[in-house]
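Extended Data, panel c. Modelled sequence:
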Amino acid sequence: MSRQPVGLRSRRPTVPSAHRVPVHLVLGDARHGVSRYAAEVAAACGARVVTDVAGLQSLDDPVHLHLTDRLLGATPDAAAARVEQLARDVALTVTLHDVPQPTDGPVFAARAAAYGRIVRAVRAWTTNSEHERLLVERWCDADAVGTTIPLPVPRPTRMQPGDGASADPAPVLGVFGFVYPGKGHRQVVRAAAALRRTGTAASVLVVGGAAPGHDDDVEDIRRLAGARDVPIEVTGHLDDDEVTHRLRSVAVPVVAHRNVSASGSLNTWLAAGRRPLVRDGSYAREVAALRPDTVTLFRDDTLADAVAAALLRPGSTWARPGTDLRPHLDDTARAYGAWWRDTR
């Protein structure tokens, strides 16, 4: 846990000025998705960034924190206690990530209790999707009142139509992002196996590598693919330009998260010009409404059929020219600015 600066416990937090952008407290490994997004939002808002509580040198500064409990403490209880102390010392607003839901398993009750404590402690809170906001109300604190500021889609790189894609692509199914249980890799391998049984030489490209602590899951997926006679490639970490190239190279992009509640990886597919197949659910329908004609929904029992249909209609996996992908990061920064003014 970060060192507490001298004097930080001695005064009550002041009310933030209506025109001040909060200091952004960006914790954790800079490569972590939440930390990386926090830094991007801070830069877009023109905020001062500190990476340790000891950097909060003035109690007069409002502070904003993007958080998931796993970034803040060894247990959900420890994470909540850390936020509660910070909220006693400064005028604190937070963006909640990885909001608890029952599919978290045995840790769900502790995480839900921790997030309830967090939303009661802070001056105001937001989530990255309506789906997540409703999860907070249902499972963490029925009386909580928050808002939603959707994750932005990166502005698409200027590319020629079809850049990075073959005119007659091999039947490669692409999955993007860290490998961990529930991300959908196993379902995509099974869909590829079903296609191979019908004579389509489908394979799987995993763009990304293991999430921290999940190296065994990569090996499990490779073993599953081998047992099903499905060729598979796992790229490991790639730089942004190479990610875009690989996302544009596959025949069928698939987003098959089982418990998704806000997805930066989905938005990266959209920024690459793709219209991915996305597992149906509350958040998927929210994205479909927010950005019409950008995703194709499928149910678990229809994935192989949806992939087969996409292979017959390759154009269905690409965004139409001029598709509106907003909000972008500058839109998100304006939304945060308006929200902070309203929380004065």
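Residues 1-18 have pLDDT under 50 and may be disordered. This feature is highlighted in the accompanying rendering.
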